[in-house]
Amino acid sequence: METQIPEFWRTEVFHPLSVHFPIVLLLLATLFKIMSLWSGRETWHFGGRLLLILGVIGIWISIYTGDLADGVVSRKLCDPTILKDHENFAYTTAWLFSIGLLLEIVLHYLKSFRNKLTNLVVVLLLVAGSVCLAYVGHLGASLVYQQAAGVNIPSENCAEFN
């Protein structure tokens, strides 16, 4: 029986391809919003808002592709509880950033309510989201590097590469 290298564009590969960009966007959005709180400059507010919008769109795409990957990899894991924790914390993270974005948009249009306290609430939501994001990343890395979730493991002699 001849062993073949699997196709790269598999369902479980879409998640790692879609998840890294929103991670960067959301972490940068958090930093921009912290800078806007500290400096009060509109440039930081605008940049943080833009990064947050793009990051929230991206995180929900990552949730979707993660759900697709779950159906493929969950049956092959030694400890699927880590996958469930990864999923639950991913939803928590997505909601924290989404609520932060919603509040940011409301405060943008209702400028009379924007002050240091409301800006601080947005920043606290984003910092909480960033902490959850770091934990979600840790769980995702443990799925890949400890349980080979979605990873093709070549044969012992790597015959499929000849």
How confident is the prediction overall: mean pLDDT? 92
How much of the residues is beta strand, in percent?
under 5%
Count of individual beta strands? 0
Structural class: mainly alpha
- Give the count of helical stretches: 4
Helix content: over 70%
Please provide the ordered H/E string of secondary-structure elements: HHHH
The rounded Rg comes to 19 Å
Please tell me what the overall shape is. Answer: elongated
The biggest sheet amounts to: none
Low-confidence stretches: none
Distance between the termini: 15 Å
Structural overview:
By secondary structure, the protein is mainly α. It is built from 4 helices and no strands. It has helices spanning 14-39, 42-73, 80-109, 116-147. Helix 1 (14-39) runs antiparallel to helix 2. The longest helix is centred in the middle third of the chain and has 32 residues, at 42-73. The radius of gyration is 19 Å and the shape is elongated. It starts with 13 loop residues before the first helix and ends in a 15-residue tail after the last helix. The mean pLDDT is 92.
